[in-house]
Amino acid sequence: MQLKSLRIFREVARTGSFVAAAELLHTVQSNVTAHIKKLEVELDAKLIDRHGTVRLTSAGQALIQYAESILSAHDEALSLFEKNASPRGRLRIGAMETTTALRLPPILAKFHEMHPEVDIKLQTGPTADLIKGMMEGKHDCIFVAGKVNHPRLHLFKAFDEQLVLVAGRHMEEMPAPQELQTATFLAFRQGCSYRQRIELLMANYGVYATRIFEFGTLDAMLGCVAAGMGYAILPRKTVEAHRHRFDVHSHPLPKEIGQVGTYFAAPETDTWTPAMTAFADILRRAVVQPESCVDVGSITKNDTAVHT
């Protein structure tokens, strides 16, 4: 069935007249009649009773419900991609637990304030899982640790993180290799880039057998570190943000291990929806200034062009 035929059928049903439908659609009555007949042939059913007043048959009453739904979905899909329309639809974001807890809330809040018709779905996970999920089409964009080397990805650095060793006691200096040899570390599951930094740190100290316990949430990890269960490696700002809740202490890691960038990654820009474009622009503008992810109040709804 052609959309044009369904539109004509809908107007005939609304007006109860072939002539009125033709006038509303700026066409001739013969064209209206031809499209109705075409639908009836395709469906092998009489849709309109033409004896006396035009009215829908039982088959016509059944079709009009589907016609309304099909045409509404078609128009909604077109409006989703209109350049000057307000973004709508959904935005699926994947991010690391630490990024979600600290960096994203003010940006997401500003995005929702500016584009309330967009439904946001946020899923957390380790870097490896997030990359895999995006390649499988489960995320529209992701925030991961380190630069993703893929020729078909659009990415830029969103945040710089300084990783620290976290413990339940004060540390004047890094623990001795002998202590680390028997230490327990707490980390997110396999695929977490910060977990890989544990292995790099241990290798730097000549320790190649490390006991690592897996945790699913940041709160659980910090709580157990505060209780003296073991060490963790986390971004310094994440630890500082939660220090009022957990009695934890930290020490900077060596520069070659402790400095890591959090990157925004997404498919090529020509695949983006208007919602995706608007989010990327708000993010890019928010991270232009150091510490400015909360200072995006000057952005207006008419100022959302992405600079790539």
Automatic annotation (TrEMBL):
Alphabetized InterPro entries for the sequence: LysR_HTH_N, LysR_subst-bd, WH-like_DNA-bd_sf, WH_DNA-bd_sf
Membrane-crossing residue ranges in chain numbering: none
Span of domain HTH lysR-type: 1-57
Gene3D superfamilies given in the database record: 3.40.190.290, Winged helix-like DNA-binding domain superfamily/Winged helix DNA-binding domain (1.10.10.10)
This protein's record includes keyword rRNA-binding: no
CDD domains xrefs: PBP2_YofA_SoxR_like (cd08442)
Keyword Transcription: yes
Keywords: DNA-binding, Transcription, Transcription regulation
The family this protein is said to belong to: Belongs to the LysR transcriptional regulatory family.
Name under which the protein is recorded: LysR substrate-binding domain-containing protein
